[in-house]
Amino acid sequence: MTGLILKAERLSRPFMGVDPFLFCAYHVDHYPHSDGHLGIDPQRLADRPLGNDFSNLHGYSMYYGNSVPGFPMHPHRGFETVTIVRSGFVDHADSMGARGRYGMGDVQWLTTGAGVQHAEMFSLLDDQRDNPLELFQIWLNLPARSKFAQPAYKMLWSEEIPFYRHQGAEVMIVAGAYAPVDGSAPLVPKTPPPDSWGAQPEADLVIWLLRLEPGAHIELPAARLPGNLRTLYVYDGDGLQVGDEAVGGQIVVNVDAAQQLPLRNAGSQRVQILLMQGMPLNEPVAAGGPFVMNTEAELHQARVDYGRTHFGGWPWDSRAPTFGNSPQRFAQYAGSPELDYPPAAK
Question: Which of 28, 150, 171, 212 makes an SS bond possible with 216, Cβ 3.0 to 4.6 Å?
Fold first, then answer.
């Protein structure tokens, strides 16, 4: 089969996105057992540049954390983060007063809009065994009309995320309905926050995680709208075939979204793929650190506004809040005293 692959190139870290996606950070950290306080024994950290550690020394990084790894309080404006946690836990706190703990297959969708501060701490809950962490964080652009939307976040608990499975092939459906080519009923995930680009029908936005065991094959449906852009990030395994063409692994493959897409694992090891698809915004991008706007003037104003307002301040007594030793996942949204739990815990 020909005409499916439009472009292929080596995979870089972070994964560089295709409009409307900005990029995807992929974290795999093999954290040791905790010190009993959700962090790492200071004696283990003596040889690290704490506060800015991306070294992967001994198989993990502390990032901007000093005891608990992660990303203490920092601002964002003008885009969205979609955080998919395959293993481990994240403690979330933000300037809206929202908080939560999620992980083990959960997804957090945060529309930063007009501006928000948040912290993302990788709390280590097990003080007897290692605490592995694997997560994706996708930065998704917002259209100009939504750059100043009210910030909001939403949890997609793992128990609520649909999966399609067929003979060794699996699709985790984070965003965008999955309509199997065999004609069975579409699998529809929860909708993102209301001002998300992913919540708009004209976006035809898709985020799927694919897993193909050796010998497995699957045919993905074509995109719903013409002009859509579809990209495969093959981050694990090297046996992938797209149609009749072997592409291997650690590769980015832009494919024709207007066609059904047959994939096969012709290798001896599992293949894993992040698929991101969406209608392009076709708008200028002015990005600087934690802000993504359309013009340099807007980018400058974002810095001024943050210096003046701190996007609502910080209601927590720490720049890196954590929420106890329980593995119970939960979310508390801004302005609500109620806690939201995964379905099995409700």
Answer: 212
- Answer for the pair 197, 140: CB distance below 8 angstroms, yes or no: yes
pLDDT along the chain (346 residues), means of 10: 86 97 98 98 95 97 98 98 98 98 98 98 98 98 98 96 97 97 94 96 97 98 97 98 96 98 98 98 97 98 98 97 97 95 79
pTM of the model: 0.97
Instruction: Look up residue 325 and give its two tokens.
Output: 């030793």
Q: Are 273 and 218 in contact (CB under 8 A)?
A: no
The CATH architecture annotation of domain 21-160+286-317 reads Sandwich (2.60)
CATH 3.40.50.1700 fits 1-12+161-283, yes or no: no
Domains 1-12+161-283 and 21-160+286-317 in one fold: yes
Per the CB < 8 A criterion, the answer to whether 124 and 342 are in contact is no
Closest CA to 131 of 10, 39, 57: 39
Residue 316 structure tokens: 């927590």
User: What residue segments make up the domains of the chain, in order of their start?
Assistant: 1-12+161-283, 21-160+286-317
